[in-house]
Structure formats: C-alpha cells, structure tokens
Amino acid sequence: MHTVKNIPWVLIYFRFLLTVPAVLFGYYHITGWPYVLLLAVAAASDYYDGVVARKLGVETAAIRQWDSIADTVFFLGVLAGMWVAFPTIYETYKWGILSIILLEVIRYIYDLAKFRRGASYHAYSAKIFGVTLLVATIAIMGFGVAMPFFPGALFMGIISELEGLFMSVVLKKWTYNVKHICVAFKLRNDTKE
After folding, report:
1. Contacts from 156-161 at CB under 8 Å and sequence distance 24+?
2. CA nearest neighbour of 54 among 7, 101, 108, 107
3. Mind listing the domains of the chain with CATH numbers?
4. Quick one: how far is CA 3 from the chain centroid?
5. Are 15 and 45 in contact (CB under 8 A)?
6. Is 168 helix (H, G, I), strand (E, B) or coil?
7. Spatial separation of the C-alpha atoms in residues 12 and 109, rounded to whole Å
8. pLDDT given for residue 70 in this prediction
9. What distance lies between CA 49 and its chain's CA centroid?
10. Burial of 193 from C-beta contacts in 10 A (0-12 / 13-18 / 19+)
11. What gap in Å lies between CA 87 and CA 104, rounded to an integer?
12. What's the pLDDT tens digit per position in 91-147?
C-alpha cells in the first residue's frame, strides 16, 4: 500500500522528466502531433497527481509545492523548445514571456524572504493560466499558430502572477491551496498576531 501512496510523486517526477523531450523535440523540430501528444501526457500527469493524492489522502504541502515547481520547469522546457522551433513567435511575444518570468522570479524571491519557501496557492487564476497556456502551446507547437491563443495566455499569466504576488503580500504565514485573493484576505483576518 505504501507504494500506491507514492503515485502522486511518481507523476510529479515524470513531469520533470518530460522537460527533456519538450526541449529536444523543439531543438530537432519535432512538432505537430508528437509535440501535442507530449503536452497531453504532461497535462494528464499534472491533473492526476492532484486527483490521486486527494483520493489516497496523501495531499500535502510538499506535494502541492513540488507540483507547482514541476509545472514551471516543464513549461520553461516548452518555452525553450518553442524558442528554437518557432523563433519568430518567441520574438513577437517576448514582452509577455519575459514579463511572466520576471514576475515569477520576483514572487519566488519575495516568498523565500517572507516564508522561507515558495508559494503553492493553486489559485483559480493559475488554473485558468495553465489551461490557456496549454491551449496556446498546442496551437504553437502542434500547428505553428500563435493567434489568438498565445496573447490571451500571456495576459492571463500576468494576471495570475500578480494575484499570486499580492496574495503573498496579504498573507501573514505560509499556506497552500489559496484559491483567490479574497481567501487570502479572509485567512489574514483569521490569523492571530
């Protein structure tokens, strides 16, 4: 039974490993359906790590935090693959890409300074960003099309990062699974000094 309870961790580690083909497929211009399949497998691992963890009663702060880290690392790999396979798309939208990366770095540094670890809110805005980013990367890496999906995903990413940073500012202590900024304010008000 102990082995079954490790399934969420296996799915998270698997997503880390998928970063390698995400980069290599882009480097060798293996796009189209093979890349779409890679994205689908990564999305399935992301979805099921949480579902399985909750079903088995093993959802922990560590699992949620490493799930977030795996998502970030995987999509940085996808970004690297896109940069090589579709450099004009990267150049056209680097304003949004770099804005999201900068906000993520600022937020992570702030979280480390304040809480001594990164945030793992899994907010609704982050989930919407994840879905829009998945659709956009399928359009780009699968079909070479960025419009209209990629600008929308970038806009949602900026909103998500700003909300995450604002939640970190609002919260008095580290917590996870904070679904939106109103929940952060409620947790702040419920926390005794």
Report:
1. 156/125, 156/128, 156/129, 156/132, 157/96, 157/100, 157/129, 157/132, 157/133, 158/96, 158/99, 158/100, 158/103, 159/125, 159/129, 160/123, 160/125, 160/126, 160/128, 160/129, 161/100, 161/103, 161/104, 161/107
2. 7
3. 4-190 (1.20.120)
4. 26
5. yes
6. helix
7. 23
8. 96
9. 13
10. exposed
11. 22
12. 999 999 999 999 999 999 999 999 999 998 999 999 999 999 999 999 999 999 999
Amino acid at 141: M
Predicted TM-score (pTM) of the model is 0.92
pLDDT in tens, 159-187: 999 999 999 999 999 998 999 999 999 99
- Say if residues 50 and 106 touch (Cβ distance below 8 Å): no
Hey, what amino acid is at 28?
A: Y
User: Rounded to whole angstroms, how far apart are CA atoms 145 and 4?
Assistant: 40
In the structure encoding, which two tokens stand for residue 49, read together? 């790590």
Residue that the structure tokens 């906000």 belong to: 103
Token readout for 96 is: 């949004």
Closest CA to 126 of 96, 160, 150: 160
CA distance 43 to 124: 16
